[in-house]
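Bench log, entry 3. Co-assembly request; chain sequences pasted below exactly as received.
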Amino acid sequence: MKPAQTLELGDRRLLICLGPGGVGKTTLSAALALNAAIGGRTVDVMTVDPAPRLLDALGLTAGDSSIQTVALAGLGAPRGSRLRALKLDPKATFDLLIERHAPSAAARDAILANRIYRNLSTALAGVADYMAMEQLLELHRDTSTGLIVLDTPPAREAIDFLDAPRRMLELLGSRAVTLLSAGRSALRSRFSILDVAARAVLSAFDRLTGLHLLGDVQAFVGSFDGMYAGFADRAAQAQALIRDDQTFVVLVTTAETERIDQAIEFIEALTQLGLKLGAVAVNRLTAPLPNEAAIAGAGLPAALKRKLKRNLDDFSALQQRETSALARLRKNVPASTRLIAAPDLGREPRTLADLAEIASALYELSA
Amino acid sequence: MKLPRLIFVTGKGGTGKSTVAASLATALAPRRPTTLADLEGRQSAMRLLGANVIDADAAAIPANSRTDTTDADVALDFLTITPQGELEAFIQRIVPLRAVSRRMLRSRTFGYVTAALPGLEAFLMLERLRQLGGNAALNDRFAVIDAPATGHALELLAVAKGIRNLAPTGTLNRLSSGVEEFLFDRNRFGVLLTVLPEELALREALEAAVALRDRLGIECVGAVLNCVPPTLFMPAEIAKLRRLEAHALLAERRNAQAEFARHARRELERAAIAVAELPMLYQATLGAHEVATLSRRLATEMLPR
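Structure output for the full assembly:
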């Protein structure tokens, strides 16, 4: 076991934490950010859905998505280092994006009030991912920031997040959307008979379901007309940033059987996207267990010794479960990717000191 | 606990939803024919039972497939419910021309339009649950649902109300009254929460119970407090371990978990939630054998003899 205290990030500018839900991605992101700040860097961490205690620890409040400076006093951070934290608010970010790119105030208001937009910005899977990317670009513009640590929305699939800009563009630029917004004459000349049939079916769907959406969809797509270029530009920048050499991607998981299955699926998806995975971090790994021999020589009542032995056996069984899951993971981690572990604190992190403890206890899982 | 015909199992991520769903279905199956259904497409609960599912590629599993167990004595079957599968079934129902409906479904834009709708797919999944619950009531069966984590589950259950407001007339409006009626019917539908003896999991369960009751008018059937460690050490014993620091820490950790489990039970009961407990299984593997152990325990905790 060798310590992996600073993840050896060098002067990398972006660290992205990906992973399935419920593995402690947000906690680990915050811990890694704090660790880098204590190491002397200027760091911004963007969290997605922090638990209340973590919000407290970072000095954030639930409703507020503005950026907050975290007080590092007493943690040994050198002068000039800095940690700022903010919480992702997909809806607010999307609204801001519309305001920026809308060609006129009327167009902006039309979009913000549109039923499709209102649902798109809260309900559509992928919008939160895309907005995380958008907020990332905003942070990245600020040159006073040395390192950005990005926590991502829990994803069933890794590519949900990394593929978000492309899918957003596809939605706005797709031929079928053009079809929806095109007038009747254009339809006759530019589109095939099948396209016309699809449109007829879509309106039949509209009528039968009683949703009356077609008008809203047309209005929405129409109002996006002058904004496509702006969005395309941002999406291209986001794509480039993810693939930049200065970007370090960490896949976070726990050693539970099911999470390991998901993690392996993530690795495959990332490899297929041609993305380099910097590290896989196994969170809340059972810490090394005490030595059994110590019990015998401790001069304790026999009954208590038996209990200690049983407790050790119980935890060993759990650790064995983790070990076999880890062995499966190891087989699927690319050679160039580091495999690290964060030991289980045995309690939920409540303070910055707890986060610092998690980050400094990271260790390399040897082969 | 008075169990409804369809039991919707949800809880915080990692609290053992699939394990509890698989164990409950196993406990029910010898009494009444039971369907174990999965809403996440991962089929975790089925895998725990060693069901024969294709594990290489989730997409290769046909949507809404039924996989029957090979065990002839126990009437347990599996069902996978996916948003895409329900949408396809619905479109094919309202657009009888197959060539046209297939073309629509292939269009990515159509996918985005339906995804941007306030939960059309989710609503169709609820409609599917209504059919499943209705069928269970009619044929004296049970259905156990391995549902998404609490946040997504609450959104899913809230969709019935929303869709009615959005569709003032038409097919969806007609379906939505049936779905709402189903969700309020305690004989047909109920939510079972899974909880771990951990602060965040407990908080999420308590909040979910309140949200279900106040926002949706749905009562939860109860909670399964999962992974409760059997108490092993007396405080006086731990005090004797000063010279074995590492062992003392391990003993304290176990005791703290057991203590928190007692606290969690009190808090849940204070919120008028019936609690069933499952022990922590200190086993190197978690599979069909362990699920059988848990199902026996659930049967004694939850089912009338």
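Confidence is low (pLDDT under 50) at residues 53-66 of chain B. Chain B has twelve helices and eight strands.
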